[in-house]
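Incident log, structure service

09:12 report received: a user says their structure output differs between two submissions of the same chain.
09:20 pulled the input from the user's history:
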Amino acid sequence: LHRPVTPDLRRANALERTGGPFETVAYTAEARRIAVERGRYNIPNVGLFLWRLQSYYLTNAAPRPVADPPDGRYTFSPLGNDAPLFNRPQTETEITHLAEEINVPDRLRRRALYDDLEAYRRALLANPSTDAPAYFGAQPVLQVFFDDLENALPPEEILICDLSGWNDPAWTPPHDDTGFSAKVSVDPVLGRLAVVEGVPLPGVVRVSYAYGFAADVGGGPYSRRETLAVPSSEAAWTATVAQNDPDADFTTLAAALADWQANGAAEGVLTIADSASYTEALTITFAAGRSLTVQAADGRRPHLRLLDADGDGMADLLVDGGAGDGAALTLNGLLVEGGLRIAADSLERLTVTHCTLVPGRGLTPDGEPRRPDLASLIVAEPNDALDVTITASLLGPILMPEDAAGLSVTDGILQSTLTSGGEARRSPALVSGNLNPFPTLTSATPTLDVTIGHEGPFTITLSGVPTTRGEARDMLQAALQAADPDPAFVEARVQTASNRLVVLPGMPEPVVFANAGADPTADELRLTADARSVEAFLSGILDPFPTLTAPLPSLRVAMNDLGPFPIVLDPPPVSVPEARDRLHAAIRAADPDPAFADAIVTRIAEELIILPGTENTSVVIGTTPEDRTTLFELELDEDRPALAADDAGATPGPQTRFVRSTVFG
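09:34 re-ran on a clean worker, output below:
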């Protein structure tokens, strides 16, 4: 009754709220049942709206520059991804008050903030003593600091804009038409900010804002006071790190860790006192019996962007020293863009509490993992004594030896970043010995015994006496497919590559040949003692062959613990045969170890097949920092486990205890 009008199409703010908990649009009577999700506005119905995500407020955090050097465009997220800003819910003072947008932990809307600031600017013209606007008063939803980190820009100098087009070549920064010398434009929907046109670029930019998350898990500004380490004795080494605090002991983590290294104290506690971004290459070297805690101060969420020797991001925090006995590392309250790598016999205890090791090592602007093929925690062998405890943390995949002391995950999230139905797959394969020159078969009716998995042995006879590898390939494939109606035989395929026969079963089961009685054909075709059983890596079907996006396609290839090594497909292939030849040459040249040097890349129809040069070897293929697309365009991506002892998931990880935790993948 209090809204007896049709909607006003000129009131954009009210129209945006239509269908939600704060709509003001009137509806005609609705008589259909709500049970079928059609009678929502029936008179007896009561709407109950819940907000699943909580609002977490960060103060003086470092936004991520879009360009290097900075060009005035930043994302609020230090990871460089678009992420909506959230409201800081203001407490209702009266129990009878009906909640409004400003009272709930919801995403901020452009129109709501724009109208709030425009009304404030108009009021300032009439009365310079006007109180701050609702969203920017005693509990501001966001603040921006230029150089002066003690004083935020006043609300009237902030423009609320749609910055979705800032990657367009013709895009220019918003200009100030308010008359209040606006300095920064903010898009709360995308979590972007841009310096206003004509304003000199600041040397330092900091922001305070709220983001949304479901619980107190991962690195965050929520209270962790009860988990913070306190030195157990006066002999302990303690230090603080902050980028713009003159009272801090260090301004970089590397300098602080070097001081701890030189100090030699058995116990160390390093506290990061701000929410800044630390872009550094870090190594922690332990001696026996030493312990170190690296923790964020309560209410802070520092961001570690780990660099490798070449200055590339998404690298590892390396823990080494071979100390083993008694060495312990604790990480608490950190957001880590990169991974954690534990060298052999370096630690006895690793504790990760309230941390985020970003799955995929980092995020693209649209929130996709930058390196989905890389694990967050990599533990080298041997590390038999290592016990890992993960609490209230979010990590990508974990690679940890099966014989490690143990792994415990409580209130945590493990996420495999390759679980989207990758097209690549693995299968046992048999590679014959070298058939150059091709042998003269002694049997007039070449006969062999073959077993695939648990099926067989079956005796098969070739349709003739082959005199070339091509004839042997065709005759052997036909004989295998006719041996038994089981798919392992019917769908078996034989190919030639590098002067050898390659036998792929129709099902992922091992293939074994033997001489049939006195007939030596299996030996003569070198399918017995001279053959090797390998794990074949098969791409998806490349029909039609994709146009590769990268101007110089590249991949990373590892064989078990060898690598990964970068390889380049030069010139870019435009067909399956060219891709086969480029991969074959590049993998063989990647490393002199036989696993690489004797590897074979072949094809069957429109599929690429990679065969390692040694038995008991798993091929693992990933992206490079320069090329994120070729792996997927050549359909060499595969699902990866969230927890295993190796990238391929062929070996299980350690004994693990999960408590109230979630595993994706």
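09:41 both user submissions now match this output. Likely a transient worker issue. Closing.
09:42 reviewer note: The chain is about 10% helix and 30% strand. The mean pLDDT is 92.
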